[in-house]
């Protein structure tokens, strides 16, 4: 059974709005996308890459994040050690180490290729720490999300045939038995 590009767009818009709202991501923060276009069309991750699927998905996400002032990072496949494609502006602002590689359909993947074509001045970085992200097709984005990670279950659990998960994050709670995690004025304790 073939996957409709129109249905992918419609489902992705619903999933993305849900995840962005519930993640608490704000303007100026980073959102990671992991994408297996192979899984979206019912294939095996890394074996059936679809340039068209990558373009449809990444262009919709790119447009939505741009409207909100959120930075996009697109994770590559294991052939690029899961490097992240970002705008040079972000890499320089966050002092991220740029690495020398250009994505291709079978080394980086369809998502990175689509992002490379959409971004103004795309570069690859080896490591990044993002506020939240979406994983379309079980690509393992967790290595790029801040600690402590919080799983988000989307209102739709699949995009095409791909399993969809998402992560957001919160600051670590530190301290011992006397630690308090919400402000209470001294007067309220009396």
From TrEMBL:
First and last residue of the signal peptide: none
Superkingdom of origin organism: Bacteria
Pfam families: DUF436 (PF04260)
InterPro entries assigned to the protein according to its UniProt record, in alphabetical order: Antibiotic_NAT-like, DUF436
Similarity-based family: Belongs to the UPF0340 family.
Protein name: UPF0340 protein SAMN02745116_00488
Organism lineage string: Bacteria, Bacillati, Bacillota, Bacilli, Lactobacillales
